[in-house]
Design goal:
The protein has eleven helices and twelve strands. The strands form two sheets. It has an eight-stranded mixed β-sheet with strand order 3-2-6-7-8-9-1-10. The protein is an alpha+beta fold. It has one domain. The protein binds iron/sulfur cluster (2 copies). The site of one iron/sulfur cluster has 11 residues, from helix 8.
Length: 339
């Protein structure tokens, strides 16, 4: 038996949450594109397994700009006070499963050496309801150990049955609380899509990267990279940030702002030297970090195969062309060793 929810009941749930002053986030349509945004009524939320919102849900846990403390001089005395932590309860509906799967990956970063209480509080206050995905030509979740209906990072999942119903899979107590008495038992079940067409072996890529740090793949492909950083901003697992003091001489805020390893100034030293002085070195860092350095340290890949980086890159890059070529080169090295 499955648990079934109708579209009308889903709208009822969203309306009740909004009227209870909960922050509800869902995919919405804006200027011909889709974005995860806070919604003010249930009709704004779009539940369609085909759409791929441009942004990532990471910004609801790790905002682009976040105050971490305030400072103010009172005469010669400097008074520093903590910024307030996120207090609301937020529920994200219709997240792609690969977006939710990035959350346990980010947990490791934000609770490894330093406990980032801003991120951790948002994680605690948030319930994530995913929508089973229909992969497109940029998706490759199965190559990084996930699937179109993986439950990693999700509290519950909706799987469409026709146009008016969903099968509901409940994974946590938080997920159960959202649906409560609105679901009914039924023999029906949702259809999960086939795997993405793109497939590569992530272990092969990881091993090859360990032995070929400065492979010429990075020079060959990065020549067209604009260094715009869009791939990192839409990526659910990229997490670079900078700390800056913003304000006047007497009062202001210390803030955490998103940064990107694809920006030329990211590693620019005060001396003028830049250890990653060109786009090839910056892309090498991104690929090495995602497919070798992070896996070596934390045991999982820093990529969920969402395809956002390629979908939003104006010169058709993203991580995929690199990993595909690295895998190909690895296979040809192995073949030449055998012959
Ligand atoms: S890979 Fe594409 S999106 Fe990323 S920095 Fe280069 S041009 Fe921009
Ligand atoms: S690197 Fe690209 S495919 Fe991987 S998680 Fe980030 S945006 Fe998605």
């Amino acid at each position: 038996m499955s648990k079934i929810l109708t579209q009308d009941k889903l709208k009822e749930i969203i309306s009740t949450l909004i009227s209870d002053s909960k922050r509800v986030v869902a995919p919405v349509s804006t200027a011909g594109k889709y974005f995860y945004r806070e919604v003010s009524n249930s009709n704004e939320a779009i539940f369609n397994s085909v759409i791929k919102p441009t942004n990532s849900i990471k910004e609801f846990f790790f905002p682009q700009h976040e105050k971490i403390c305030n400072y103010c001089y009172s005469g010669k005395e400097l008074i520093v006070s903590d910024a307030e932590l996120f207090e609301s309860e937020q529920i994200i509906f219709g997240s792609r499963p690969c977006e939710a799967a990035a959350l346990p990956v980010l947990d490791k970063v934000f609770s490894w050496d330093f406990q980032d209480r801003f991120f951790q509080r948002r994680r605690k206050q948030t319930t994530v309801i995913t929508l089973a995905c229909v992969p497109d030509d940029f998706c490759f979740c199965t190559s990084v150990g996930l699937s179109a209906d993986n439950n990693s990072g999700a509290d519950a999942m909706l799987i469409p049955i026709g146009n008016n119903e969903f099968e509901v899979r409940l994974f946590t107590e938080k997920g159960k609380l959202i649906f409560n008495d609105k679901i009914i038992e039924s023999e029906k079940s949702g259809d999960v899509s086939d795997s993405p067409k793109i497939k590569f072996d992530a272990n092969t890529v990881q091993n090859y990267l360990s032995e070929h740090f400065g492979d010429d793949v990075f020079d060959r492909l990065s020549i067209k990279c604009l260094g715009c950083g869009a791939c990192t901003y839409v990526c659910p697992t990229c997490h670079c940030f900078d700390i800056a003091d913003e304000g006047g001489a007497s009062c202001g805020n210390r803030v955490k702002n998103w940064d990107s390893c694809q920006f030329a100034f990211f590693t620019h030293h005060a001396s003028g030297h830049n250890p990653r002085g060109n786009q090839s070195a910056r892309q090498r860092n991104r690929i090495q970090h995602k497919f070798r350095i992070y896996p070596d340290k934390f045991g999982s890949i820093l990529c969920t195969g969402c395809g956002n980086c390629a979908r939003e890159c104006s010169v058709s890059l993203g991580v995929l062309p690199y990993v595909e070529l690295l895998e190909k080169k690895s296979k040809s090295v192995e073949k030449s060793k055998e012959s």
